[in-house]
User: Which sequence fits this backbone?
């Protein structure tokens, strides 16, 4: 019984889709064309944006930013308005003959260009604005570079400057007179270990201000760094005698060095030694010094014996920034004995 009912249902469905097939196809095509015609001819409202082109009087500019686009509501056949792309519509606002002061602009009285046939403007938002026109002036202001980040360990920033150091800015008189300096976009100096120059755009804070004609919009920011000069003290440095059979008393010394901080931190305590030299001629101040430099392994200090008992030689001379120098050894003299 169930099988018989299933066959009858199948036969009904087959006849529904196959009997009078050409007529059914024709009806479907007609219905589709009717739907498309109704949709395309139906009047609808759509919101889009229109660009605004401004024309200013000679020597006058707006005191604040003016709208560059407007929201425009248009009405027309659905098939037409749906195809309107942003930027297709535009308004031209001509204020060439306007005097200084407040000027009322009614966008509803200005023709919207780019409307297709059969499409009309229903509403413009905002419908109107008041524009304050001021005298345009130019002023030379300082460029202030903006930096973030810290240089590499052991380095410090010594100078940050802009090239050029100043720029000419033009704009409404009230805004330009308040301007004392112009910042740059942020420059990141994190990890900097050598002088470097960056390109940075001017970060003008007010949209009604702009660089004067011929003035750069991008400046060069020069950042200079140098090593941090520090001192480091080594206590209990072993004292050796550069002569067989002799020992020094006291047996240890205190050594103070100065140089780039990063280089000082790499010196190992076992790489520092004081050697008392019994023979040979000492230098002019009684010391012989071999400076440890980046890449070396030790600092060796050679002390000449004072010519007069109890006389202490002067400290080592300043060898200049960029090299590690030994600036003090204590004590300055030693007693040499046979063990």
Assistant:
């Amino acid at each position: 019984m169930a099988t018989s009912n299933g066959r009858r249902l199948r036969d009904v469905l087959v006849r529904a889709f196959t009997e009078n097939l050409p007529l059914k196809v024709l009806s479907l095509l007609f219905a589709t064309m009717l739907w498309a015609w109704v949709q395309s001819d139906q009047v609808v409202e759509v919101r889009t944006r229109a660009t605004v082109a401004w024309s200013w009087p000679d020597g006058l500019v707006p005191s604040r930013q003016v709208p560059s686009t407007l929201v425009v509501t248009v009405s027309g056949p659905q098939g037409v308005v749906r195809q309107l792309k942003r930027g297709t519509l535009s308004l031209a606002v001509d204020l060439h003959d306007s005097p200084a002061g407040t000027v009322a602009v009614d966008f509803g009285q200005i023709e919207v260009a780019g409307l297709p046939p059969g499409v009309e403007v229903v509403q413009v938002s905002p419908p109107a604005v008041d524009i304050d026109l001021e005298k345009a002036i130019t002023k030379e202001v300082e460029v202030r570079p903006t930096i973030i980040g810290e240089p590499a360990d052991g380095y410090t920033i010594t100078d940050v400057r802009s090239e050029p150091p100043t720029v000419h800015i033009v704009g409404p008189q009230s805004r330009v007179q308040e301007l004392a300096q112009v910042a740059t976009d942020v420059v990141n100096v994190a990890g900097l270990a050598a002088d470097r120059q960056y390109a940075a755009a001017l970060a003008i804070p007010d949209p009604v201000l702009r660089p004067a004609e011929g003035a750069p919009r991008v400046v060069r920011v020069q950042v200079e760094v140098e090593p941090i000069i520090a001192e480091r003290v080594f206590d209990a440095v072993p004292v050796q005698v550069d002569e067989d059979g002799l020992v020094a008393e006291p047996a240890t010394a205190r050594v103070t060095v100065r140089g780039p901080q990063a280089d000082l931190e790499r010196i190992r305590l076992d790489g520092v030694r004081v050697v008392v030299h019994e023979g040979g001629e000492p230098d002019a101040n009684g010391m012989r010094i071999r400076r440890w430099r980046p890449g070396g392994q030790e600092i060796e200090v050679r002390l000449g014996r004072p010519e007069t008992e109890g006389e202490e030689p002067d400290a080592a001379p300043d060898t200049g920034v960029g090299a590690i120098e030994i600036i003090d050894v204590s004590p300055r003299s030693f007693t040499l004995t046979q063990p």
The first strand starts at residue 43 and ends at 55. The helical segments are 2-18, 21-41, 78-81, 173-178, 261-264. The domain at 135-227 is CATH 2.170.120.40 (RNA Polymerase Alpha Subunit; Chain A, domain 2).
